[in-house]
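Onboarding guide, step 5: your first structure request.
Type a short instruction followed by the sequence, for example:

Predict the 3D structure of this protein.
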Amino acid sequence: MSLSVVLFTASQLMAQDPSFQKGDNVINLGIGLGSTMYFGTGYRMAVPPVSASYEFCIIDGIAKKGAVGIAPYIGFSSYKYKYEDWGWRYTNIILGVRGAFHYPFVDKLDTYAGIMLGYDIITWKEIGDAGDNTADAPGSFVHSEFIGARYYFANNFAAFAELGYGISWFTVGMSFKF
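The system replies with structure tokens like these:
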């Protein structure tokens, strides 16, 4: 019995079609949960963490169904700290390049893992009675690892979820393949 379950499962995994192939282009639009920005008393979100990437497949046929894609990435979020009539507004922008290895384990599900290299730009602005002072915090180079999956409801439309550092620790959104 268990041998038949193993053989059936293995045959199903081998039968999955590649969900990301050379020539594919995918636009991801996401909203983040669990931001890497500021938390604490008095802080509130001004703009939720949002991100966009444009991934294109550069190599496919790795281990029969695997593929490698690269993507420019941009993430944006903004937070405010306010105490009575004075406070700060923090804005965070991440510009990066991502590389990911894709491998389908289940039909219509594009699973992937990758890395990102980028630059984090932080600006702040004083608001309220103290005047309007603006400054740029020193930016920094960032790198991260991530895992994710896209489930295709149609040939060119998917929902995605990613775990790993970007503009947030967890991102969900929509993907459009063309």
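Each response can be followed by summary notes, for example: The radius of gyration is 20 Å.
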